[in-house]
């Protein structure tokens, strides 16, 4: 059960955070949230698939790490085997919080029950001896801001996808080298044929709103599905 607290330089003066990778640190996940403003960086490493939120009509985008719950094919022991970590992973155990009214500037919150909370002699400090933010905390705050802004802006992106009916159901079944069958189901992708069929006015409107580039990046990311399959085959083969 998460235990969120507003981060401050008195209560958390001596707090340290583990920044390495590992299943015991919460990295054993099949997918993580990503936002359209991040698609350009994500697509070079991970497939981007869309999923409808449970009980809602809204969609979210997911950077995919594996084929089943608890499987991260980019996690190699205590090493993250990719040149990029999506923001929603990189900011753990921090999050943006707001006053109960929902208005006002965001605050940096921390999950005190997260496994990345380090022992006194481990990890990276958040504040120096004078109570000033360390470079690590400054970087976390910047990433939190990027993720929060990207999430808040994403509503218009999904509205545009739905307005032009550009999402189509997607499933993938792969027979691996050992003969086992693995699948991804319950996801959506951008319908490339419908996107190509849009007239100039519609494309111009999407471009002016900043939505066209993330759509192209999401489509480009699908080439990473074959990379995911290759990683799975290597994992099964002991490589």
From TrEMBL:
<dbReference type="InterPro" id="IPR010836">
    <property type="entry name" value="SapC"/>
</dbReference>
<dbReference type="Pfam" id="PF07277">
    <property type="entry name" value="SapC"/>
</dbReference>
<protein>
    <submittedName>
        <fullName>SapC</fullName>
    </submittedName>
</protein>
């Amino acid at each position: 059960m998460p235990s969120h607290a507003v981060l401050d330089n008195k209560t958390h003066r001596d707090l340290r955070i583990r920044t390495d990778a590992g299943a015991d640190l919460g990295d054993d996940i099949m997918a993580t949230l990503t936002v359209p403003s991040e698609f350009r960086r994500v697509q070079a490493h991970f497939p981007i698939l869309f999923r409808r939120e449970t009980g809602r009509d809204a969609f979210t985008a997911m950077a995919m790490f594996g084929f089943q719950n608890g499987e991260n094919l980019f996690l190699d022991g205590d090493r993250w085997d990719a040149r990029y970590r999506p923001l929603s992973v990189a900011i753990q155990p921090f999050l943006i919080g707001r006053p109960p009214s929902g208005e006002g500037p965001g605050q940096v919150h921390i999950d005190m029950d997260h496994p990345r909370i380090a022992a006194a002699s481990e990890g990276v400090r958040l504040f120096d001896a004078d109570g000033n933010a360390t470079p690590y905390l400054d970087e976390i705050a910047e990433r939190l801001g990027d993720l929060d802004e990207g999430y808040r802006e994403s509503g218009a992106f999904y509205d545009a996808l739905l307005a032009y009916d550009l999402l189509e159901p997607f499933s993938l079944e792969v027979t691996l080298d050992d003969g086992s069958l693995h699948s991804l189901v319950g996801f959506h992708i951008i319908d490339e044929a419908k996107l190509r069929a849009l007239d100039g006015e519609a494309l111009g409107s999407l471009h002016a709103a900043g939505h066209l580039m993330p759509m192209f990046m999401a489509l480009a990311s699908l080439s990473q599905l074959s990379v995911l399959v290759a990683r799975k085959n290597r994992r099964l083969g002991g490589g």
